[in-house]
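Second attempt. The first submission of ABC-type quaternary amine transporter had a stray character pasted in from the spreadsheet, which I only caught after the job came back as garbage. Lesson logged: always re-copy from the clean sequence file. Corrected sequence (352 aa) follows.
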Amino acid sequence: MISFQNASKAFPDGTVGVDDLSLEVETGSLTVFVGPSGCGKTTSMRMVNKMVTPTSGRVLIDGRDIADLPTVPLRLGIGYVIQHAGLLPHRTVLDNVAQVLRLKGLSRREARARAHEAIERVQLRPELIDRYPSQLSGGQQQRVGVARALAADPPILLMDEPFSAVDPVVREELQLEILRIQREVQKTILFVTHDIDEALRLGDRIAVFAPGGEVQQYAAPETVLTQPANELVRSMVGRDRGFRALSFAGAESVPVHQLPGASDGTIHVDGAWAFTLDPDGRPGDWLGSDGAPLGLGTLIPPDGSLRTVLDAVLSSPAPYAICVDAAGRPSGIVQAEDAYRAVARRGSGEAP
Ligand SMILES: Nc1ncnc2c1ncn2[C@@H]1O[C@H](COP(=O)(O)OP(=O)(O)OP(=O)(O)O)[C@@H](O)[C@H]1O
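This time the job returned cleanly.
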């Protein structure tokens, strides 16, 4: 666990970077520091690896004040990922990742073997390992940055705006990737971003910072969305927070009906509505009354949230949305009316 205890940082020019920060980051959790530029997120994060020394207060890791820990071994136990990845330009991908293992005293051969494993974990294409960073896309460079941070298997990972320099599509891929990796490795991750959507998507808990370096709220994303602590947090999470909060609501209250079997590659849901299956047995198109394909809309994955269900019914050309299994094949059907009712019940605070 990382504990900030009344940690403050005033710079010599009088700027207060962080003001009396007290919070705990649970072991194995992903905590996001979010807030506008200049509100002290990076300064707070850098206290953890001693790149910044608090002017008052302290930071503890597993109960030990880091002021008492020697800097080099401390940093070897903390992976650090920054914007633009910060890779060494004249080293190949493999050597960039292996470098931290060499610092830990591993032989060249062992370091390279472990680096290979880390590169595999972030799903970077193996043929890229002999390239230099400038020969990679921004997204690929960030994957290497994550691999390098994970290579030595540190218990703590600090990630400072790691995905802000890549385009939105790649950014979303990297976000999903970090969630997948976190499920596998269960590190204690501190993640800094100014993007509230990224924070809500990734965080087990999020700390909302305000200019002046003061934390306004430290809570689970759903709580930040549904019960913002004050006007500042409310304005940050935006006007569609009610809709976004549906991401955290389970869809158990929406009945899922069984589908009839397919005939001629088509499933007839009722007398009026049918959809086709592609050759792999996945949903193809809804069919109009004249048999013309109408497209599909989004599908409801296993364990989809109420937001996924609502999105699926809103985007479907039919008054239904299709549930699919992990292989993408139809597993049931939801009626749009039922989804709307579930949302209405939630909005009115009624029990499901
Ligand atoms: N070395 C320094 N000397 C003086 N002021 C500093 C120094 N480093 C940071 N600051 C100031 O401290 C405040 C917090 O900076 P910090 O970088 O932690 O903010 P941030 O929330 O991470 O913002 P950004 O997302 O822009 O990096 C800012 O006002 C910044 O100008």
